[in-house]
Amino acid sequence: MVDKIIQYSKRYLFEWSIFVAQLKATVIAVFPFLRSIHISEEVSLDFQNSDDYLFLAFVHSVKKHIHIETVSLMTVVFTLFFGAVYGAVQFFHVPGLVVISSIVAFFYLVLMAFKLWIVYHGVSYPLIDFSKKEIEHINDDDLPLYTILIPLYREAEVADQVIKAMSAIDYPKDKLDIIITLEKYDAETLSALKKSGLPSHFKTLILPDVCPKTKPKALNVAFLEAMGEFLVIYDAETVPDADQLKKAYLAFRSHPDIACFQTRLEHYNANHNILTKLFNTEYSFHYDLFLPGLQKHNFPVPLSGHSIHFRRHVIEKIGAWDPYNVTEDCDIGIRLYRQGFKTGMMNSVTYEEATCTLKSWTIQRTRWMKGFIQTSIVHLRHPLRFKQEVGGWRNFFVFLLTVPGTVAVNILNLVLWVILVIWLVMHSSFIQTLYPQPVLYMSGVAFIVGSFIFTYLNLLGAYRRKKFYLVKYGMLTPIYWVMIAIATTRAALQIIKNPHGWEKTKHGSHLSKQSG
User: Fold this and answer.
1) How far apart, in whole angstroms, are the C-alpha atoms of residue 408 and residue 400?
2) What pTM did the predictor assign?
3) ∠ CA 39-44-47 to the nearest 5 degrees?
4) Where's the Glycosyltransferase 2-like domain (predicted)?
5) Domains of the chain, residue spans
6) Residue 288's CB: how many other CB atoms inside 10 A?
């Protein structure tokens, strides 16, 4: 009798395990975003790929935006969202649009509270720093080889500035591995570099004529030639602090657990016009308050595009950059975090040019927001796996607020301002029905208090940099938000029409003003 029971139990457990396995396979087939491993990850990183210089597994790239995982996830998300709206409509007996307006107002309040909390902690967070005496005591013989990657494209106007900025770096010339990348048809920039007196320790690397024509593709090509233990990316118009590389060396040596260091960014032409002043207040908030707050809590950090110092072996381990992502910095910051690598912030400044014209600014911001959308798509292909890799729901929701949330709030801003203008002009009764008293109060707090808080935070950043003259331009911040909203909407449209297109930001306007 006992043997029969044991036999029956074993058979039952065997059949149950088969049923569970079949059920799991069926669920994953219906909802492929629940997969833990994608088929493209079964092969190792391909650093021999010279077709498009994509070294990553296919699933971690935006070479193809819409995967079956993306479609299935969005189907589930929209079904749950509209199901929740329908449930709220039935329970509270209010129109569906009122429920949606309530959700939007709540989202704004959450985002406002989140940024206030981050800045509260970011204000007092000490950046990694070293005294002048510590830097002077460095023995040059102890310094490692350091690679500087400078991707250039149609930058003849700033060729002289590039050479001067890199030559001013306080680091032994024989320990600098400086690689300037150029497209083969960009003879004008190459000629300008030679005319400016390109030093012998600078190397020019002509890129293969393959698509995509992006900055991260150029970085991947150059990475194969990089020899330094550490590496940093500098853009065409950047001017780093002279001691930045030595500070980075000390930072890497004293913090062996940190894979890369973000520096602070500043504009050397902040006073060029009103646009650059508003741009500069935004930078002051982002790099002096917001990013330090994220660092303090060890949250995922969307890195900036240049002046990030990396351990070379870490870049190799994660597969370098995604050549199809037009904001490769944001993507690689999240990818580092997913794979368990820490990021630090170093108290060193890199100066760059703030875009001076509305057209250039819009092109640049469109590219940034398009990259944020691309990064969101890539990292949310397997959301439960992503949640596990970033360390739980807390970090998962922080990512949602800082990357896709930034895109969402910018587009919502445009929609809500259009609704506000229509109501002010036409006093539409339909719009009034969308905001019954409780929702109106919540939306009013989000709009009035939120606008004040975000304006104040930008000015707080400028104040901490002792740029008191920027305070009076704070009243123009809402106009700046409208511009951001338009650029973000443009980015969302480009994801559909031209997902990998790289719109070039023109540099050198500050030089033409100086010469004039």
Assistant:
1) 10
2) 0.92
3) 125
4) 232-425
5) 44-516
6) 23
